[in-house]
């Protein structure tokens, strides 16, 4: 194993040490792409408070760590793996420490769905991989994506053929083995063909309480008249560092529906960038985050309305206790030609302690004149009048506060269309309230 401090020079040195062993090392175009991106990362470095998009989230705790880059994938027994859904209603793909485990995955996928390990595709020299999916717009704003591109060791390429309605939920488990303080850079590609529908649920969790760093980049295309429900459950241990960046292209008449439930990690940052590039395209970006102790949760979104008749709805709610910190940054950009746009954004946070803190930065950039757009951000303590009312009806202080917090977060969960998933999220919220060491007294 190679031990690497988490500064810029260490990551560059790690690239120099491992570039000849990364998957796809015989592909000239990929070697060029990796080299270009590590050079970009070396020029920019890790984001700091001087970086506008990172002014509220410091990576100093990450920089103080030393990680081990495992040379082989972690292992886990099949009966140790958490499963969100019954096997009869879902298929599950398993990644351990960022690497695909075929032996632990359900390899019989629904008709019209294919999944390949990125490492296997690159090592096989497959030429039908869209090379443009390995680059990003505004790359200079995303140094950690550049680092991911340079060091990506595995991930998945998941495709849904056109005119396919996938009945089973596709569950993707990202499991930290807990055996080492590791770092992994995972690259994922999702393609949903025209006229198709699919539900993908990604689950981040781990064994143990070890520190590790997961840096994930996901690129998604939702073709004409297709619908992708993309849900994420992030409940890693409170020593972990998780950073993810998702880039979505939504086609004509298509819908990208997203929900994030975030309860884990010491530092969790989720960037979601959506391009509504064709008429009647739509996205729903919803979620809840819950933090306690010194946890830090950052949700940063950007939606580009590029053509007429596009729609975006965004509802994010958070609850913080202890000395936890939450960050929400949401930008809606309506380009000049994007008339008849509808874009609504809402972020609300409830603070359960005097030490908890939230920073919010909603932005609207509108260059068209026939639009309906709004944004709103609020944060505050629990409603004392509502609390008094419930206490007067015989509830204890703890019961009353738990009921109010549940109701506050459940409002965001109502956006989830799948009833099984909605129930799952509500149970996770209740579990967090019950197990929160800083729950209201």
Automatic annotation (TrEMBL):
Any GO BP: iron-sulfur cluster assembly
Coiled coil: none
InterPro entries: Fe-S_cluster_assembly_SufBD (IPR055346), SUF_FeS_clus_asmbl_SufBD_core (IPR000825), SUF_FeS_clus_asmbl_SufBD_sf (IPR037284), SUF_FeS_clus_asmbl_SufD (IPR011542), SufBD_N (IPR045595)
Positions of the SUF system FeS cluster assembly SufBD N-terminal domain: 8-172
Signal sequence annotation: none
Protein name: Fe-S cluster assembly protein SufD
Family according to the record: Belongs to the iron-sulfur cluster assembly SufBD family.
Lineage: superkingdom: Bacteria
SUF system FeS cluster assembly SufBD core domain boundaries: 180-408
């Amino acid at each position: 194993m190679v031990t690497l401090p988490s500064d810029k020079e260490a990551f560059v040195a790690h690239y120099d040490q491992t570039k000849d062993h990364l998957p796809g090392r015989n592909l000239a175009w990929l070697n060029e792409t990796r080299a270009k991106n590590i050079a970009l990362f070396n020029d920019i470095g890790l984001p700091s408070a001087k970086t506008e998009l990172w002014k509220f989230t410091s990576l100093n705790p990450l920089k103080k760590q030393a990680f081990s880059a495992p040379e082989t994938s972690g292992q886990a027994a099949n009966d140790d793996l958490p499963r969100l859904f019954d096997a009869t209603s879902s298929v599950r793909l398993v990644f351990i420490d960022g690497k695909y485990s075929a032996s632990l995955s359900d390899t019989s996928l629904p008709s019209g769905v294919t999944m390949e390990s990125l490492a296997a595709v690159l090592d096989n020299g497959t030429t039908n991989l869209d090379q443009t999916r390995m680059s990003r717009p505004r790359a200079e704003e995303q140094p950690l994506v550049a680092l991911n591109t340079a060091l990506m060791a595995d991930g998945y390429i998941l495709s849904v053929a056109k005119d396919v309605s996938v009945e089973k939920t596709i569950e993707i488990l990202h499991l930290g083995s807990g055996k080492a303080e590791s770092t992994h850079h995972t690259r994922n590609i999702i393609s949903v063909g025209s006229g198709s529908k699919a539900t993908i649920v990604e689950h981040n969790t781990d064994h143990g309480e070890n520190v590790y760093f997961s840096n994930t980049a996901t690129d998604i295309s939702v073709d004409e008249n297709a619908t992708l429900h993309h849900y994420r459950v992030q409940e890693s241990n409170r020593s972990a560092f998780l950073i993810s960046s998702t880039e979505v292209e939504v086609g004509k008449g298509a819908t990208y529906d997203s929900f994030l439930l975030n309860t884990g990690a010491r530092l969790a940052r989720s960037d979601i960038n959506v391009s509504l590039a064709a008429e009647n395209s739509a996205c729903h970006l919803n979620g809840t985050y819950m933090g306690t102790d010194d946890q830090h949760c950052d949700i940063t979104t950007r939606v580009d309305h590029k053509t007429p008749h596009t729609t975006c709805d965004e509802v994010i709610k958070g609850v913080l206790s202890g000395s936890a910190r939450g960050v929400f940054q949401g930008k809606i950009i309506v380009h000049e030609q994007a008339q008849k746009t509808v874009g609504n954004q809402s972020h609300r946070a409830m603070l359960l302690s005097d030490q908890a803190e939230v920073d919010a930065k909603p932005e609207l950039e509108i260059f068209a004149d026939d639009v309906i757009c709004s944004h709103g951000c609020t944060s505050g303590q629990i409603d004392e009048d509502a609390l008094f009312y419930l206490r007067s009806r015989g509830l204890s202080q703890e019961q009353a506060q738990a009921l109010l917090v549940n109701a506050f977060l459940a409002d965001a969960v109502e956006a989830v269309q799948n009833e099984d998933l909605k129930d799952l999220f509500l149970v996770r919220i209740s579990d967090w309230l019950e197990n929160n060491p800083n729950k209201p007294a």
